[in-house]
Please model this.
Amino acid sequence: MQKKVAVVQSNYIPWKGYFDLIRSVDAFILYDDVQYTRRDWRNRNKIKTAQGEHWLSVPVKNRGRYEQLINEVQVSESDWAAKHWKTIEMSYRRAACFTQMEAPIRALYEQAASIESLSRINELFISGLCALLDIHTPLYRSEDLGRSEGKNERLIQLCQALDATEYLSGPAASCYLDEAAFATAGLEVSYMSYAGYPEYPQLFGEFQHAVSVIDLLFNTGSDASTFLERRS
Model:
């Protein structure tokens, strides 16, 4: 039986392409036992506001912890979730579907407020937002699936742990993936395309694709999943 798997580091309230990748596979692995990268998508993402694009960043402990793994990163301020929700509420309260999406998304922030692990916060949001997007792909943690050395070797091992036949990668990885090694392991390699997403009714000026998926949910509600269907 064919089984397609993707392996990606967790992101904070990711953009719609991240969720399109999840729904494009049979199993999705959160690859969080690798080194944390600062000023990246692991702990931050963008929303639209009346003043323009705005970064929401989860404050984390990183001073002197330059070698820590993503799943070792801890939150540094206890009130970050309340602050983020306040900014989100002010920015999207006039969105067409804010009333529909307010309760479930606010509930995620209320749950996240008591979690200290960045990885678990990201997992909470990814899982919860998948449910709102009608995505039912099972999520796995890489640390639960064994370990091997080497970038390509590790990805192959993770795919094999779930009996995959195909590895779906983000397009940027084409510069380092050893496709021959995957083929030797019986794994086909394919690459995700993020081209062709339709625009949707969006607040505050010129349309932007590269913002958190919560922008899509607040503006389109239960129709959000249809805007993950690429047209090219």
Notes: Residues 3 and 47 are 34 Å apart (CA to CA). The chain has one domain: 4-227.
